Amino acid sequence: MTSNEALEALRDIVGSSQVLPAADAASYLKDWRGEFEPAALAVVRPADTDEVARVIEACAEAGLAVVAQSGNTGLVGGSAAGDAQREVIVSLERLDRVREVDVDNATMTVEAGCILADAQQAAADAGLYFPLTLASKARCRIGGNLATNAGGLNVVRYGNTRDLVLGLEVVLADGRVWHNLSGLRKDNSGFDLNDLFVGSEGALGIVTAAVFKLYDPIVQQVVALFGLDDPADAVVLQRRLIAASGHNLTGCELMSRQSVELACAHIEGCDKPFAREYDWYLLAELGSSAEGDWLPAIMDSVVARAKYENRLRDVRIATDAASAIRLWHLRESLPPAQVAEGASIKHDISLPVSKLPTFLSRALPAIKQALPGVRPCPFGHVGDGNLHFNLSKPAGGDDSAFMAESEHAHQVVHDIVVDMGGSFAAEHGIGRLKVEALARYKQPVELDMMRAIKTALDPDNRLNPGVIVPKL
Amino acid sequence: MTSNEALEALRDIVGSSQVLPAADAASYLKDWRGEFEPAALAVVRPADTDEVARVIEACAEAGLAVVAQSGNTGLVGGSAAGDAQREVIVSLERLDRVREVDVDNATMTVEAGCILADAQQAAADAGLYFPLTLASKARCRIGGNLATNAGGLNVVRYGNTRDLVLGLEVVLADGRVWHNLSGLRKDNSGFDLNDLFVGSEGALGIVTAAVFKLYDPIVQQVVALFGLDDPADAVVLQRRLIAASGHNLTGCELMSRQSVELACAHIEGCDKPFAREYDWYLLAELGSSAEGDWLPAIMDSVVARAKYENRLRDVRIATDAASAIRLWHLRESLPPAQVAEGASIKHDISLPVSKLPTFLSRALPAIKQALPGVRPCPFGHVGDGNLHFNLSKPAGGDDSAFMAESEHAHQVVHDIVVDMGGSFAAEHGIGRLKVEALARYKQPVELDMMRAIKTALDPDNRLNPGVIVPKL
User: Fold this and answer.
1) What is the CATH number of domain A98-213?
2) Measured between beta carbons, which residues in chain A are less than 8 angstroms from residue B426?
3) Contact criterion met (CB < 8 Å) for B455 and A453
4) Which residues in chain B show pLDDT less than 70?
5) Which residues on chain B are in Cβ contact (under 8 Å) with A177?
6) How far is A406 from chain B (nearest CA, A)?
7) Nearest-CA neighbor of A418 among A391, A438, A448?
8) pLDDT digits (tens, 9 = 90+) for B414-450
């Protein structure tokens, strides 16, 4: 079948206005971080699950591979198509409905093209709460959240995307549809396929909808910012805050001095939080959907003990919404501040929470030795053991000269992470960006299992080829 | 290789005293519910993961299949070996250590042969809390909990076994070992294989150890028993209790009038909870690890509103431990009371919580029509949508005549469950008992995926053949 015949077959399914030639599809052929220059034969925009299935079937017949895409805001090139002749991007944008909110079951059925913020709003409109939230929530879409098992700011309390999923609807490589949207909280009838598809980056099937667990809106909250000398104190504080609050630590973000300095330098509304600077800052939020006002007292009690033990240098506590937003603004300004400062080499690593201090004590000197003048800006979700160990270029340094050190930097950092049993891809995934690192760092036995499962579910390698599964 | 040569090879690995011929292995060849008469060539008791791996390899060479077994208390014949010539039971009892408790990471690494109650105690000894709990906790072992994705009494708050797992150590079909015990709370480096092995009933690999999330001990609690006319009120109450308490509903058990009557008739210490009887009872427990005493007020508030709306007939609230234990004793007495009453046909079903009332309004008349005189004793975990829809024989009826109706009863009940989008295997699993039902009720596309994954990871069908995956 020629390319033109294949495109004609796709037009027959979705209508000719929904098949965009690559030349008219710039927004689908962009890579969020600019690491890749995506290429595809066309972008196809099916209207519903049935059209997705027929598109997949038609692509299989035409010998075309399929790259599923929803918001295209991923950070590892997972939706960056890579072949202008043999790959088609299937955009799920038009599958954007919230199909159902079941209040008594506390669940919501959402299509893959729904924008995350819209899904949050649908839950709120029903008096419930969808806790998944990311910086890109106004732009990212549920399909990508599922494909990457997105993390974000609330994981310490509510888990990753996977932990919120009760069921999926998936179009398989042969175009058949698996329907599993019943919304069961217990089901041991067979292997757990839901969790296999979540986080599989479109390489095992195309998720078209999901049932999510919902929670209840937060009605009491307290936010505190701590100035610390030692990240080990952050580990102790997160553990105590979880215990004392009854697992109501809803945010727990560690910020290094350098990362906060850049935010204060570049981002409006960011002021130095204390009269003097500290090496580390910890932002902690307690929140509960239970009526009451006991969380501030719990925060005070944890703070008092930590002061007594000399574990914290300074603290600011926000009990009203406006002050809480100001503290969070500092945290949310760290990534844009790093962009504003110029070249930045990024790492998305995780370790057991208990090992973060040791990791920092190994990785910081190692990276300073490897990249003289580098300014490490580690920050992130300490309650999940997940740090964005980002490195800003030397002050006034050249962007491209610094970025040329990326591979070197990755190896220094990831070698330490893997040596300590950690992950070099904690929440952003593998995509095309880290597929070689995966081949390097994973145990052969795990690589073999991944390949065996990929072959079992996508024997012709038609779903997002080159992503997540290293080539043999 | 002859059987004798194979046994000799196994003795070389584990020592001759740890290879038991079937004749000396009665306790490993029992089926907890008496549905099967297990048979195996021998029982092998390896000392550690390395010995497990070598045993699997030796069995593969000898052409023997392997049935992993830990506590052997499962309810669906998942560890009931089925071939006296070609199957070997690998008992994991000797892998019974708690390898580590990491307090700052709030995790625990436990071997598959550890008794559940011992794992709970290890967490408690470290000041933490392992929430998985089952009636069989003094006898069941972690390996079986993982193999069946065990549920139990705390799922409404803490999830199933799968939700507590952060990583696994697994011996694969070819004897290689996958090491994934780092205890990461975030790791998107590849497919999610942990959740695939959990609940796979030993058919994809043999789990030898796991890292579990830990929580904090409960320090405030209130338990209430409600008398209700309508199970729909139980659904409303569970939703309100979750919302009002900030997701601190730790137990939520629905009990039918008949089930409570049998408990009061047969089990010591069970007294009628109210002056009159009600069609339904709901046992609800709120618990939190946060210091304080606000839960009783939250319970009072939910009760006051429900009374005002005429949603409950009667209530007993226990705020001290002794009264709470008495209320729970009633719930825990339901299964032994059904045993004492004679023949009982069992169903382990789930639906969205919101659909349970409709299910009961369909299934109760249908089963009464199908089995005249039957006494339905539904009870279970209403907060998870999971009911044990058990049926006691007609009063004074013949046990074996009633049990002869089992298949008929299963079909009536499961047809309704599946028609409503529910599961006929909610928490006990498939094992050998329900593998035909799985073949009948599952979508072909899901059966195909299960078979493809089974073949990918166990190409020679050597791991627990006949369990969970229907034959082609």
Assistant:
1) 3.30.465.10
2) 184, 186-189
3) no
4) 472
5) 445
6) 19
7) A438
8) 999 999 999 999 999 999 999 999 999 999 999 999 9
Residue positions counted in chain B: 472
Q: Which of B247, B384, B445 sits opposite A289 (nearest CB)?
A: B247
Rounded to 10 deg, the angle between the B356-370 and B406-419 helix axes is 150
B97: its two tokens: 């250590």
Q: How far is A113 from chain B (nearest CA, A)?
A: 22
CB contact under 8 A, B188 and A386: no
Q: Do domains A220-335 and A342-436 have the same CATH topology?
A: yes
> In chain B, whose CA is at the least distance from the CA of A440?
B189
CB-CB: which of B196, B291, B425 is closest to A191? Answer: B196
Residue A75 pLDDT: 94
Q: A342-436: what fold?
A: Alpha-Beta Plaits (3.30.70)
Q: How many other C-beta atoms are found inside a 10 Å radius of the C-beta of residue B138?
A: 12
- Count helices and strands in chain A by DSSP H and E runs: 17, 19
Q: Does the domain at residues A3-91 carry the CATH identifier 3.30.43.10? A: yes
Q: Give the gap in angstroms from C-alpha B428 to the nearest C-alpha of chain A.
A: 7
Q: Quick one: which of B104, B131, B27 has its CA closest to B73?
A: B27
Contact A303, A224 (CB under 8 A): yes
Burial A5-30 (b: 16+ CB within 10 A, else e): ebbebbeebbeeebbbebeebeebbb
Strands (E), B76-164: 82-91, 98-102, 107-111
ipTM above 0.85, yes or no: yes
Quick check: helix, strand or coil at residue B394? coil
Contact at CB, A421 and B215, closer than 8 angstroms: no
Instruction: Please tell me the CATH code under which domain B342-429 is placed.
Output: 3.30.70.2740
Strands A39-44 and B177-180: unpaired
Domain locations along chain B:
3-91, 98-213, 220-335, 342-429
We find that the CATH architecture of domain A220-335 is 2-Layer Sandwich (3.30)
Among B150, B182, B178, CA closest to B164: B150
Look at residues B351, B341, B418, B411 and name the one whose alpha carbon lies nearest to residue B381: B351
Q: Which of B354, B423, B438 sits opposite A105 (nearest CB)?
A: B354
